[in-house]
Write a structure and sequence with these properties.
Distance between the termini: 41 Å
Strand content: 15-25%
Number of helices: 24
Oligomer: single chain
């Protein structure tokens, strides 16, 4: 058996060398299809299949507060009370840790350096199962109120600032105005749970004596005990929530727990998009298989005498099929080898264009699993495209083949099978084109969506005055006033403003009361509004339109606020909101002075929310964004903005400097990524379809040369011959379009959650892609038709 297989492989090699042109076309076609599949599978493997880089990651779950019973989200952030409540479930969890992002300013040189990090409970590294490369991680004694400040560095920060010097352990560095002792360095392989680019970590120092039950400021991860399933954990947490509803009715009514496997949480909405991309490259490979099957069918019809002789010498049908399948598999493996090289390039390209924040993108690569996938895919592809030609060639026709002496073709030479394959190829191409068209239109709609403000020539950067130096509201307001004054005076700045949060940069919510209406009895009944603390110039800088009323003035001391249209419609649907008064906790009563247009703070996909703008000098936040409207390129103001802040306080850095247009581009990055890839795959499918139609039409013209010669000899005009060939192609296209349109509706339904601003049955997309496919079908049959027009009747009639 092995010897026979080796003989088949050697014979396949000789056949491939003999038909060099066909072999080259087939290998290149397969390399494109297999390379694309390999590259996309490497992403799927890294994000969906490969375990997270933590100890026993299948036991890690993200714990969310579930507010669906109140009409809220299923994934609300947690607070100190939840951390200590869930940590006490020792029969469910081996450990629980809470953490949040941290804007850190490191002052260890002439220029303060902004860095992103995480503040965590002391269990953080133990729950994730991660140990330090150097020094130690947090202890419980580090995580209590008033404990000495300690910090753990990332490997990259350690290398950049300290050159990998091991003596860094024990050194003290000032961060946000406080001295921190460096106690450890994490290995390069460690990945933070929340801030993927975290450069350092410090303890939260929560107070377990009286944890707040009504704040949402953390993310929380639990490590399940061995033997405890997710369903068991969910049941235990539900029981605990019911107990707290009875014990704390004023805060915990309608508050459940939603545990989500950490891997599922990190991938999030990318799961659907990844499967869409995998399906798209699968279509490309299927189309490539159809093309090669057509090539092999054409070659098989020319090898009928060879096969007939082998049959006459005693080879049975299965022996012939095995030989031809071996040739197909060898061809596919050769294409797969080149495809792996193409996949390596494809992976690099994918990582280069992947949107910022794509989880685990740095782990994507061609490893043993991906290589095994490519080999199996190549083998399966060879069987797939070789089966029909092999079975067709092995049919019992060898007697007629020997009688004809190898001249001419047997039957239709596989013509019917080739036509069926071309129809399938066109249908698949149209389905892919429809998907690509819908995603492209989605991206264009996202780019052109009205966000309620003008992002053009706007630059923003975040400043965080250290709490130890700016302890009072008056000190923070004085700092913000000085920064705003210097920023507004910078050359090239037309407007300057402050805002606690910028659009697409996050959200903050707060409870409020409406004067004259009953106070809520429980937290579940509280009114909640999204808020921004801004300067009076914010609306002009961002070009947010005033609908009614007026804006508050710079440092106007009358307590005034501005609300958006959604808030006015939500809370005063049948009355005028102007002049009404609202209050936030212990704040003074604020009078609503004006109503502005809605801003899509979460991007165009986000729904409008009730929002209030509060003057920053009444309730100053710990940190604010400095927002600049510039006359020229906003990026040129990045360094001057840093200098302006340094002039106010040399110990404060400006973090996260970015233009609003780049923030919007980042927000739309995933849509751009998917649309770009599917469009590339659709273009490749269209090219392969054109090659397939050209090949079939060329072969058909060669087969029908005698018929064409007779028609011309009997007086048929050249244009009639042209119409005959092109019409044959367009008939195939029509059938393929009908099947592809039906399949396109299925594709559109699968893409529904990824679309924006376009319906899944969008007639423009379907019409445009269908017209494009018809044009390609016409173009692909044009040259064979021209060749048919020029057929010499006498030469054709003499040919046998």
């Amino acid at each position: 058996m092995v010897r026979g297989l080796w003989q088949d492989i050697r014979y396949a090699g000789r056949v491939m060398l003999k038909a060099r042109a066909l072999t080259l076309v087939a290998i290149v076609t397969l390399a494109l299809g297999i390379g694309a599949n390999t590259a996309i599978f490497s992403v799927v493997d890294a994000l969906l299949l490969r375990p997270l880089p933590y100890h026993e990651p299948d036991r890690l779950v993200m714990l969310w507060v579930d507010l669906r019973a109140r009409g809220g989200p299923a994934t609300e952030w947690t607070g100190p009370s939840q951390h200590f409540d869930w940590k006490a479930l020792h029969d469910v969890f081996d450990g629980v840790t809470s953490f949040r992002g941290w804007n850190a300013t490191i002052v260890a040189g002439p220029i303060p350096e902004a860095a992103l990090g995480e503040q965590t409970t002391f269990e953080y590294f133990d729950v994730l199962g991660a140990g330090p490369e150097l020094g130690r991680v947090f202890r419980q004694s580090d995580d209590i109120p008033n404990a000495p400040r300690v910090v753990v560095l990332s490997h990259s920060l350690w290398m950049q600032r300290y050159g990998g010097d091991a003596s860094v352990i024990g050194q003290v560095i000032p961060i946000n105005g406080e001295k921190h002792e460096i106690i450890g360095v994490m290995p390069a392989s460690f990945r933070a749970a929340l801030v993927t680019t975290a450069a350092l970590w410090r303890p939260l120092r929560l107070n377990p004596a009286n944890p707040s039950r009504d704040v949402a400021v953390f993310h929380t991860i639990g490590r399940l005990r061995k033997g405890v399933s997710l369903a068991q954990a969910r049941a235990a947490l539900a029981t605990l929530s019911k107990q707290f509803e009875r014990t704390y009715p004023e805060t915990d009514v309608g508050k459940g727990v939603n545990p989500v496997p950490l891997q599922e949480q990190q991938v999030g909405e990318m799961r659907l998009a990844l499967f869409v991309l995998l399906g798209a490259v699968g279509f490309v490979l299927l189309i490539a298989c159809v093309n090669i099957a057509n090539l092999l069918l054409a070659r098989a019809s020319g090898r009928m005498r060879e096969i007939a002789v082998r049959r006459a010498l005693g080879a049975d049908r299965m022996r012939i099929v095995r030989q031809l399948l071996t040739e197909s598999v060898v061809l596919a493996l050769a294409g797969g080898g080149l495809g792996v090289l193409a996949g390596v390039w494809g992976v690099s390209a994918l990582k280069a264009i992947a949107p910022d924040g794509t989880p685990r993108i740095d782990e994507v690569g061609i490893d043993r699993v991906v290589l095994a996938f490519a080999i199996v895919l190549s083998f399966g592809t060879g069987v797939l495209f070789g089966l029909v030609p092999a079975w067709h060639a092995a049919r019992d026709q060898f007697t007629r083949a020997l009688a004809q002496g190898g001249r001419g073709q047997i039957g239709d030479g596989g013509g019917r099978a080739r036509r069926i394959l071309i129809v399938a190829e066109l249908a698949l191409a149209l389905m892919l084109l429809v998907g690509g068209g819908l995603l492209i239109r989605t991206f264009v709609a996202l780019q052109n969506a009205d966000l309620g403000f003008n992002p053009d020539r706007v630059l923003a950067g975040f400043v965080l005055p250290p709490p130890v130096a700016y302890k009072t509201n008056e000190q923070r307001v004085a700092f913000y006033d000085a920064v705003l004054e210097r920023a507004a005076a910078l050359p090239g700045v037309t407007h300057a403003a402050l805002s606690s949060v910028v659009p697409l940069g996050g959200d903050s919510d707060i409870d409020f009361l409406i004067e004259g209406r009953p106070q809520p009895r429980t937290t579940a009944d509280a009114l909640i509004v999204w808020y921004r603390e801004v300067s009076a110039s914010y609306f002009t800088t961002m070009e947010i339109p005033l609908r009614r009323g007026r804006l508050f003035g710079a440092r106007e001391m009358t307590p005034l606020v501005v609300i958006n249209e959604t808030m006015a419609k939500t809370h005063w649907p049948h009355e005028d909101a102007i002049g009404r008064r609202i209050r936030f906790g212990d704040s003074p009563w604020f009078t609503i002075a004006g109503i502005v247009g809605d801003v899509h703070v979460r991007g165009p996909r986000g729904s409008n929310r009730a929002e209030v703008y509060i003057p920053y000098w009444f309730m100053p936040e710990p940190g604010v964004n400095v927002v600049l409207k510039t006359a020229g390129a906003p990026t040129l103001l990045a360094e001057p903005l840093k200098s302006a802040v340094k002039d106010v306080d040399p110990a404060i850095a400006v973090a996260g400097i970015a233009t609003m247009t780049s923030m919007i581009a980042d927000a739309n990055g995933a849509s751009r990524f998917y649309a770009t890839l599917v469009a590339i795959f659709a273009a490749l499918a269209l090219l392969l379809a054109a090659v397939g139609i050209y090949g079939v039409m060329s072969y058909t013209v060669a087969q029908r040369s005698q018929e064409i010669g007779v028609r011309l000899a009997l007086g048929a005009a050249e244009r009639q011959i042209f119409a005959l060939v092109v019409g044959d192609s367009l008939k195939l296209a029509a059938v393929g379009l009908a099947l592809g349109a039906a399949g396109g509706i299925v594709v559109a339904r699968a893409l529904q959650n990824l679309l924006f601003g376009v319906a899944g049955t969008d007639p423009i997309t379907f019409s445009a892609t269908a017209a494009l496919l018809v044009i390609v079908a016409f173009a692909a049959s044009y040259f064979p038709a021209r060749r048919a027009m020029r057929t010499d009747p006498m030469e054709a009639l003499r040919a046998d």
